[in-house]
Amino acid sequence: MNFDTLLSLPPVTLAVYAALFALSVMTVTVAIFKITQFRKMRLGRSRQAEDILDDWLNGRPDEAQRKAINDDSVLSRVLRAVMSGLRARPSDPSYGEELARQSALVELTRMGNRMRLLEAVVQMAPMLGLLGTVIGMIDAFGSLAASQAAADPRLLASGIWTALTTTAAGLAIALIAYFIAAWLEGRIDDERQTIEMVISAAIHGRVGQTRG
């Protein structure tokens, strides 16, 4: 589809193309934002958290807290909260667990920011594409009905082809947004499970190991 053909489309169809383009830009923008955010939050990097847990469980709480304070990853911030609670109230592990879960909730909320935008793209793009196709088909057959001359099958086919491109574009955008959202959600789920494990390990110890 060249530029002249695009300009000859009905205004509503042009609006559909513009909306689909906006959705594609939003998808790319959100993907870049989330990837950058996850890198800054250091998702998936658990080596430092393992070192902190080793110190904590082997009777070196000061060293563990020092490492947690100096590291700015999600897991270290959660461990910092649980260790602070356990040291403040050694006889009440539930206090440390509650502080850790509050910290984890804050982190998970940050991770989930703007994810709904991708979900909206997955829902909206196919519907917009279908709307563009329906409008294009109406325009193509309306022009055919209004024509006084013999119908040219090539012109009709061209109109139908142009109309169907909006559905194809909408589906393509939705699929890309879906796979990006699924990958990001997978990263969040992995981090959620790791957070649960480090909280449990800090309070109850690892399997076969008791907290010192």
UniProtKB/TrEMBL annotation:
Main location (coarse class): membrane
Compartments where found: Cell membrane; Membrane
GO terms under biological process: protein import
Keyword presence, Cell membrane: yes
PANTHER family: MOTA_TOLQ_EXBB PROTON CHANNEL DOMAIN-CONTAINING PROTEIN, PROTEIN TOLQ
Membrane protein topology class: Multi-pass membrane protein
Name under which the protein is recorded: MotA/TolQ/ExbB proton channel family protein
Chain ranges of the MotA/TolQ/ExbB proton channel domain: 73-197
Family: Belongs to the exbB/tolQ family.
Chain ranges passing through the membrane: 12-33, 117-138, 158-184
Superkingdom, natural source: Bacteria
Pfam family, any one: MotA_ExbB
Keyword annotations from UniProtKB, A to Z: Cell membrane, Membrane, Protein transport, Transmembrane, Transmembrane helix, Transport
Native source organism of the sequence: Paracoccus denitrificans
